[in-house]
Amino acid sequence: MAPPPPIGANSTAARDIANVLHPYTDLKTHQEVGPVVISRGKGVRVWDDNGKEYIESVAGLWCAALGFDNERLVQAAANQMRKLPFYHAFTAKSHEPMIDLAEMLIERAPVPMSKVFFANSGSEANDSAIKMIWYMNNALGRPQKKKIIGRRKGYHGITIASASLTGLPANHRSFDVPLPGFIHTMTPHYYHEMAPGESEDAFASRCAEALETLILTEGPDTVAAMWAEPIMGAGGVIVPPRGYFPKIQAVLRKYDVALVVDEVICGFWRTGNYWGTQTLNIQPDILTCAKALSSSYLPISAVMVNQRVFDALAKESNDIGTFGHGFTYSGHPVPAAVAIETLKIYDELDMGAHVSDVGSYLQTSLRERFGNHPLVGEVRGTGLIAGVELVADKAERRNFDPKVKVGPRLMKICEDAGVIVRVSVNDTLCFSPPLIITRADIDEMLDRISKSLDELTVQLRREQIAVVR
Ligand SMILES: Cc1ncc(COP(=O)(O)O)c(C=O)c1O
Questions:
Q1: Is the backbone of residue 106 left (phi > 0), alpha (psi -120 to 50) or beta?
Q2: Cα 374 to middle of ligand 1, angstroms
Q3: Residue 156 Cα, ligand 1 centroid: separation in angstroms?
Q4: Adjacent-strand bridge partners of 184
């Protein structure tokens, strides 16, 4: 591997090291290694400040759905900036971009929804929905029904409540979360969690039984809601078996536990349908979304609630005198205008048909190219979201020792080869490219990754780390 170029005094990299505290970064190593400074983008590609080009295999953070240079979104923001750069939504103030966007989301909702609340990030949307659930149950006269169920390896954000809901150790360790009242059920990952000889359907039933046991152990009168991503993203692109959600929902309905579906990654065609909810056959009471809502050009997220939830919120707020929740930037007109334009572009481009074409091409290509690769345990995904899990031993489905740092190594090799990748839990290479990706872009992206995986294999064999039978 080529050593990193020396960091020049007063370069952008040096100034980054001196001044920036990076999210999701080993802060100490960063002081020595420094950042990759991205300075421009076009289509599915970005360039660093040395002029090196990269294909973005994960659209930044699963989010820049329309790529990195959509001029219509720039114009939508500029026009709205000139007309009304800020207004708020407190005390019944409103403005057209927020009203139009709420209406568009209600029209596009996968199940009948009543109202939309806006926030600025996925974490804020989930935090807001947690508070709505608690508020609702106070309104319904059941103040003890407050516990929230997440899933191990689920990801719902990093604010204190959403991090409590998240089921990943790195988001809990040393942060003193989860808070009391947040509990986690099993991960629906057949590849790792199946019992010997168990069918996918039997495994899905066992997941539902585990959920029921958890609810009964905690006491159904104390459990308010369950949160789920249709396909778990940050947890390693985990696609549950087909029958999983109907079985889970039957249990939730039995104990009057609400279902909140986190569509922050899966929403807006990512899984091949407008919503992951449709791909996985789910009927949520509340739906949260963000990221591709504005193609992430500006921060905005949304919480959609059904009539039953809204009626309870309305009653309680009327008793108290106000719904005492909201952000200065809830429904901010500029991100709202960008989101409206984004949703129009999805419609005009017939994004569903496009994702159906390039998504099946991506899924087939990944399986053809990597299915039999010596380091690859499982290839999974649907539409334009996929995971390629690397294992130390294919036969035993055994992951690498985290000390080997397979993920960071692969990321570095891929970056040298001109592709930015995300390697998440269990060394899973995650794919969530901009939705506008073409078949030719996919070929080029996979060529670069294929070369990188081969180089990693050579390294790991040389160090006698990978078991190759
Ligand atoms: C499914 C899911 N929910 C919530 C979040 C949190 O969103 P944010 O980082 O905007 O707070 C993410 C972020 O990746 C996510 O993937």
A1: alpha
A2: 32
A3: 5
A4: 150
pLDDT digits (tens, 9 = 90+) for 394-417: 999 999 999 999 999 999 999 999
Ligand 1 nearest atom to the CA of residue 121, by list position: 10
Q: Is the pLDDT of residue 2 over 60?
A: no
In this predicted structure, the answer to whether residue 468 has a pLDDT above a threshold of 70 is no
Cα-to-centroid distance, 208 and ligand 1 (Å): 25
Q: What are the structure tokens assigned to 37, written together?
A: 């400074």
Mutate to test the pocket of ligand 1, among 123, 289, 425 (most ligand atoms within 8 A of CB): 123
User: 232: number of CA atoms within 13 Å, CB side?
Assistant: 26
pLDDT per position as a tens digit, 236-265:
999 999 999 999 999 999 999 999 999 999
Q: Give the span between the Cα atoms of 270 and 273, in whole angstroms.
A: 7
CA distance 49 to 72: 25
Supply the angle between the helices 333-348 and 71-83 in degrees, to the nearest 10: 150
pLDDT-derived band at 7 (thresholds 50, 70, 90) equals: confident
Torsion on CA atoms 56, 62, 67, 68, rounded to nearest 10: -70
- Alpha carbon separation from 402 to 33, 157, 390 (Å, rounded): 20, 23, 12
Q: DSSP string covering 327-383, please?
A: -TTTT-HHHHHHHHHHHHHHHHTTHHHHHHHHHHHHHHHHHHHHTT-TTEEEEEEET
CB count within 10 Å of CB 48 equals: 18
Distance 306 CA to ligand 1 centre (A): 22
CA-closest candidate to residue 400, choices 310, 314, 305, 467: 467
d(Cα 206, Cα 196) in Å, to the nearest integer? 13
What pLDDT is attached to residue 332? 98
Atom nearest to 263 CA in ligand 1: 1
Instruction: Look at residue 312 and give its three-state secondary structure.
Output: helix
